[in-house]
Amino acid sequence: MASVISALTSGGGGISMTGDASGILNLNSNGTTVVAVTGAGATVTGALAVSGTGALTLPVGTTGQRPTPVTGMTRFNSTTSVTEFYNGTAWVTAGGTPLSVEYLVVAGGGGGGGTSVGQNGGSGGGGAGGYLTSVTLSTIGSSFAVAVGAGGAGGATNANGAAGTNSSFGNIAATGGGFGAPQANTSGNGGSGGGQPWTGTAGTGTAGQGNNGGAKSSTGTAAGGGGGAGGVGGTGLVNVGGAGGIGISNSISGASVGYAGGGGGGGYGTTNTGGGAGTSGGGNGSSSTVGSPGTANTGGGGGGTGATAAVAGGAGGSGVVILKYPVGFTITIGAGLTGSTAAASGGFIVTTITAGTGNVSWA
C-alpha cells in the first residue's frame, strides 16, 4: 500500500489524497502511478524531461561502490574519473570508442569418482565445465572482471570427486562441471553433470552450457560418462564405462580445438579395458587404474575408475577464457591473471587467459 496523491480528470478535475502508514508515496495521473517514492529512492514511469540551463547531477562513487547492476544504470566513477553505464554485461565508459569482443568462457571440469576393492561397480566420470560463447560490446577504458576456474580434484578411495570451479568474463559466468561419484552416491550437478554410478544418480547439466551425465550399464557394474557441452554422457555397456559426452570444437584461437568434453565412466574388470573414453579434453575412465585427468584449459571432466582396485578418479581439466577483438586495440591483462596475446591475424587479435582472477581492459 501507499499514500497517494492523484490528479483527477473527471468531475471537474482537482486533486485527491489518501494516506496510510507504509511510508511510500505515489503520485498518480489519471489512475496511473507516475512517480513512486520510497526510502530507497524514487521510480519514474514514462519519460522524464529536465529543463533549464543548470545540470543533472549523477550519483558519484568509487569502483568498489558500484550498486548491483541493472541494464541502463548510469553513474560517475570517482576511481576512474569517467561517466559509466551498465550495458547488461559490464560497466562501460559512456561515449567511449565502441569495441566488439568475441568470447569463449569454459569452466573447470569435475573430477571423476574414486573406488575401492570390492565395490559393486565403477564410479561416474566427471562432467565438463560449462561452455559459453558469443559477442559482447564494450568501450575503450572499460574494465571486465575475469576468473578462470580450476578443475575439480579426482575422488580419493571410494569418494566423490570435486566439482569444477566457475569461469567468468564480466557477468558471463560458466558453471563448473559436476563431480563423478562411486557406489550409491549421487553425482554432482554442474555445467555438465557427473555420470551415474552403481546404484546412485547421474548429475544434471545447466541449460545452455552443458548436458546431463550418462546412465550406468544395465548390470550396474559400469558407470555412465560425464556430460559434455555437446551431448549427454554415454551409457555404460555391461563392464565397459560410458564414454564422456561430446564437447564442442571452437576456432576462436585460430585453430579448431575441442572444449568441455565429459570424462569417461569407470568400468568393471581386472584389466584396464573397461573404462569409457573421454572426449574433447575429458579424461578416459578406467577399470583397474587411476582415472585419466581432463586436459588443462579445456574444461574436460576427469575419468571415473573401476571396482577392482583402491584407486582415485581423474582430476577435471581447468577452464579458459579466450577473447578475440579487432586490430587497433590494446588489451591490459591485470594482476592475478595468467594469459598471453597472439600476433594479429586476419584483422583480429586473440588473448587467451589460462588461470587466475583479475581484470582486463582495452585502450
Structural overview:
- The protein has 363 residues and is mainly β.
- It has three domains: 3-44, no CATH class; 62-95, no CATH class; 98-363, no CATH class.
- The chain contains no helices and 20 strands.
- The chain has strands spanning 3-8, 14-18, 25-29, 32-38, 41-44, 60-61, 74-77, 82-86, 91-93, 98-106, 131-139, 143-148, 167-169, 172-174, 248-250, 257-259, 320-326, 331-333, 337-341, 348-362.
- Strands 10, 11, 12, 13, 14, 17, 18, 19 and 20 form a nine-stranded antiparallel sheet that branches. A five-stranded mixed sheet has the order 2-1-3-4-5, with no helix packed on it.
- The two termini are 50 Å apart.
- The mean pLDDT is 88.
Keywords:
363 residues; 3 domains; elongated; mainly beta; five-stranded mixed beta sheet; nine-stranded antiparallel beta sheet; 0% helix
How many domains make up the 3D coordinates? Answer: 3
Cα-to-Cα separation, first versus last residue: 50 Å
Whole-number radius of gyration?
27 Å
Portion in beta strands: 25-35%
Which regions are unreliable across 5 or more consecutive residues at pLDDT < 50?
none
